[in-house]
Structures
1.
Amino acid sequence: MNKPRKNQNSVNGSSHPTIVDIARQIGVAPMTVSRVINESGYVSEAMRQRVQAAVTEMNYRPNVLARSLKRQRTQVIGILLPDIANPFSAELVRGIQEVLLARSYTSFIGTTERSTQREQAELRALFDLRADGIIVATRETKKGNDYLLKLTENRLPMAVVGRTLNHPQVDRVTADHWQGAYEAVEHLIALGHRRIGYVGVQPINGGGLRRYQGYLDAMRDHQLKIDERIIVGPAEQAGPGYSTQDDGYAATNRLLKIKQRPTAIVARNDFTAIGAMCAIRDAGLRIPEDMAVVGFDNVPLAAYTAPPLTTVDQPTAEQGRQAATLLLERIEGDRARERREINLACHLVIRASTQPATQRT
Amino acid sequence: MNKPRKNQNSVNGSSHPTIVDIARQIGVAPMTVSRVINESGYVSEAMRQRVQAAVTEMNYRPNVLARSLKRQRTQVIGILLPDIANPFSAELVRGIQEVLLARSYTSFIGTTERSTQREQAELRALFDLRADGIIVATRETKKGNDYLLKLTENRLPMAVVGRTLNHPQVDRVTADHWQGAYEAVEHLIALGHRRIGYVGVQPINGGGLRRYQGYLDAMRDHQLKIDERIIVGPAEQAGPGYSTQDDGYAATNRLLKIKQRPTAIVARNDFTAIGAMCAIRDAGLRIPEDMAVVGFDNVPLAAYTAPPLTTVDQPTAEQGRQAATLLLERIEGDRARERREINLACHLVIRASTQPATQRT
DNA sequence: AGCAATTGTGATAACGTTATCAGAGTCGCT
DNA sequence: AGCGACTCTGATAACGTTATCACAATTGCT
């Protein structure tokens, strides 16, 4: 009480008082302050209160840099996303953070923006930060995979969402896009459609896209002809097929020029579907009478399109929760445990873009 | 060369070799390695190459925790957003990161999810991390403002985007929503509309919303009656007026029940507008013949709605760039400099939702 | 040749925290 | 009374890095 009245900008001049400042203030060892802050070890109740008071008065906040350095873990999980703009990313993050928050982890988000270079930079940043683990939801690329595997070899715990990464210690969470697309096609078939197109993929390199496989398999299983002329994707030079309204619009315009055009289309995702619907309307056709449309993802907007969009709902937040849970399990438990894979069911949401056809074959 | 063949998981057993490991490997002092890594001070070319080789071979990456701790700055800028789901956030982040990347800063994103509690938690996290500065783009709340001011008092450099914060050291970047809305209303008036509604705000508490003020002022300046019955917002109990398709849909449904309904509406933002359009169609009315609609923000989707949406474009990425530039200027220069404010112009994008009326007064 | 300036390298301490050990005091039990 | 167990507090060292000082070797200049 002889050095009175010091505000939070105390001893060390910086605006961040340290544990040492607190300790000096009340005349104890820094270690004692540390124990109070972390509620670890023995501290008498009287001391605890004295320290607490000083902590609040001086507005002390632990320096996570120093703490993480000493503890050799950061309590940080990196999240790598293709981009930030879409509802899928947002929902996924929500699910992940729900779990992390409860277990007092923090998350850092990095985005790829379609560039493998960006992806590596972001991963490197997370690695340099000594993130305790990462959740990866980017599109697969050769380079990207190589780099991820390298990080895994460096013992960085990892989980992937909605994609693959072939490594025995990388957990994996997905939704069953194959099944969702399969059901969507069966729904169209039940409505009487026979000639069903696919918008958002190039027939050549759609192999990795499970929702596209689901479309193909459903068509085959029902003895329907797969006509590559009504499977349209982004223009060749568009790079790594990244799907937006624009792609859907352009591709569908090409599709509509074909003589025997389909009576229904399945779109790679809802935004592609929205672009497609716009193209269909611009061509003077009605939805669903002249052409039915099915999307994929059930973004919030899908209920408000004109007409409201039939689409496949995938449990996005749940994928996030599961991925986070698996990852934390690995981080805090057996880091070498064999990978787990979780595949969640999708379900079809039927709206007005696929009403039963009135005058159809 | 007597302890041969060590892979990257070297001396200290962890998968992260340190500067000391490198130094030992080639028999020099850690300081020399540090100098090579940071390209600071004098190092002979021969030494530089020797160190570089070891760094690559052992896959060394500097520990940013230790580095930041020592340097007393993290090169991290925190970004606080209301949420991650919307295109505005995405564009803003893109603009910010463009600047940060070029100046070798990293950014961490925190989201509020409409909760002041979450907001404080995220801010605290950024503060604890010793972020060098933060950019805040959340909605204003009393509690939120108080906390932000407290952080500013603790000398955390700050810039706000699309909102206010009254402090002489907080820079501010906005787009002129007032002017954008004003132009939108004048556009409708020029098309012959006299009775123009507003969707997405409650007349009572719209005071803080500049785009709403622009609507009111434009109406007044053109001697048009402001009728509070055709100004509809989210239901009272909806909490902090957060606008989505759902709100727009519900509010517009209420609006459509009014006898003398407006011939045009201005929506608080594009998503509200999309909800509104859906409600209008559901009521069996045509857009724009029976009711014209103007949105705000020009989200990518606005070009693909049915009909394509007339809306006010705001330079979002540019706001991000400007905010980041101002903030870095403050961080690296005079931290006490008087605040700067930048107000960027908006412009109207005319599409089909407001075509010149055919049979109107 | 002589001396200052430049170049190259190393030793030391510190950033803020916490794991670990050590020691003193208290309590409970025989 | 004696002894082990528990409770409380402190001293020390370390996490991985870099700022600073120190010193030797080289260079340039008169």
Note: The CA atoms of residues 149 and 167 of chain A lie 7 Å apart.
2.
Amino acid sequence: MADADEKSDGVKWLTPDELDSWLSVVKLMTRLTWSIDQQLQRDSNLAMVEYQVLAMLVKSPQRMLRMSSLAVVTNASLPHLSRVVTRLENRGLVRREPDPHDRRFTNAILTESGVLTLEEAAPAHVAHVRSLVIDVLSPEQLRRLGVAAERIVSRIDSWSIG
Amino acid sequence: MADADEKSDGVKWLTPDELDSWLSVVKLMTRLTWSIDQQLQRDSNLAMVEYQVLAMLVKSPQRMLRMSSLAVVTNASLPHLSRVVTRLENRGLVRREPDPHDRRFTNAILTESGVLTLEEAAPAHVAHVRSLVIDVLSPEQLRRLGVAAERIVSRIDSWSIG
DNA sequence: AGAGGGTACTTGCTGCATCAAGTGATGATT
DNA sequence: AATCATCACTTGATGCAGCAAGTACCCTCT
């Protein structure tokens, strides 16, 4: 037998331990996303991606980012982000402005009202993230979780590009 | 000052390291879900939740589970699962049958065609999971990732229930 | 300067997820 | 035994996500 993990069909299946870990990760992805979304929706009437947009903009110079950059940092596709920003624009939290130097670019800019909304939403959101994630792991565990997540994501990126 | 991590607003914000780790986890959730979905859709015309349904059923006695149990193991809400099973039923991969002893329960049963579909889909899916997750981490890293995921999920569950 | 190619979005269409309300079956209560 | 409460789903309505196609703009190259 060429490989102890391979059955006669030539597929390298997961070991029971690997399967357990993988299913835990799957559970994490669905449940954590859901829980975060719930909290934001309930307390601040925001979807997670909307919160991410506001949070990324407030950290940026001029509280402004190009749509394409914003799409990257919020892990959204450009079509998706475009809709999200339209919704936020209709609520007065963000406005759009074409880049004066190259009108192909569109800048998304956080309004004062957007800053205020984010400031109101942030404490409960941060507390929720703390209670679910940060505070149930030791600093070292959290760091390792982040590192593992990074490794997986960069693997995904290298597959999508290469 | 009562706590070095608290600013004057009384909110315990995330440290830069905590924020980095958290953003990595967020990135993982969105990107990994997306990548897994892409692969399954492209190669097998299945959504991830549909694959999960088939995979959970095939492991069950009689290849059969109650809708409510199936909802738990696939991390789906009952309304969502109901729609998913309807889709799979229309494709002939699953059928429904009311429990003879208590007709409030509905059993979802994997058909032969469903078994075949799963067997066709599994190798590429497993290979994908391997290349993105299992093979980029050491066994110990993977185990720790699983443990951390478990801890977070049980925290979510205790919040939803308690 | 006008055509072609590429970039940076935006939008039409379709299908999916979600909440709330509905349905049918069972058990509990009087 | 008739009503009420509960359970286990299912379904109607609505808004969201995703792909593909479209639009506007810019930069060459001839």
Note: Chain A has a mean pLDDT of 94.
